[in-house]
Design a protein that fits this description.
four-stranded antiparallel sheet, alpha/beta, 29% strand, Rossmann fold
Length: 255
Amino acid sequence: MGDGMHDTLEIQNLHVRIEEREILKGVNLVVRKGEVHALMGPNGSGKSTLAYALMGHPKYTVTEGKILMKGQSLLGMEPDARARLGLFLAFQYPCEVPGVRMSNFLRLAVNARVGKETDVMEFYDKIEKTMKHLEMGEQFVKRYVNEGFSGGEKKRNEILQMMMLQPEFAVMDETDSGLDIDALRIVSKGVNELRGPNLGILIITHYERILRYITPDFVHILVDGRIVKSGGADLAVHLEEHGYDWIIKESEAKA
């Protein structure tokens, strides 16, 4: 597992606000390489805010706390610098990029990640194999980035990026993505293939559905900007059966 700190994505006492409103109120979370963590919570609990803060979105201000990856502070680091360091965000590029083909976009991203020009033949060979694996047609990479993509195609595209970029930590904000069962199965297959000692994964989701396909090692429940409960995969199943009300009541009683 290496030397501890260099194998972790660590969030310490993180407070984040948008304009005047504090949304995260002291989040603590450690994701080690080789682990899959799921962060769940009711709508408005701050799940997406955490994803945006990890990404370095300018609208989200960190007022207190730390985000450390491999012992380095990510705060103040531009999103692309975070990516080069080995952080992947699965909604990194949800927007359409007209005029830029997927293949060119991916090649630039891979070059930036490894810090050098990748061999063109090698790159296309790898992308072809990965696409076959994700049951994507060959035409896919000839299309412009996300232009006219369905929800399922966007998600497959994210997994394709992840498989090509080989990050050390991946944050997947699956929030209510409305995937059909086929897309969910293929996305999960990709994530399960990537699982292993060199990758730490944080899946942020409202529903337990995706966790039936990707079994997390740890589940954390975020309520009103704080993690109020952590457990194993069975915690997600319990939530599916009982909803969030009991957790909210429990956390209010402690407050």
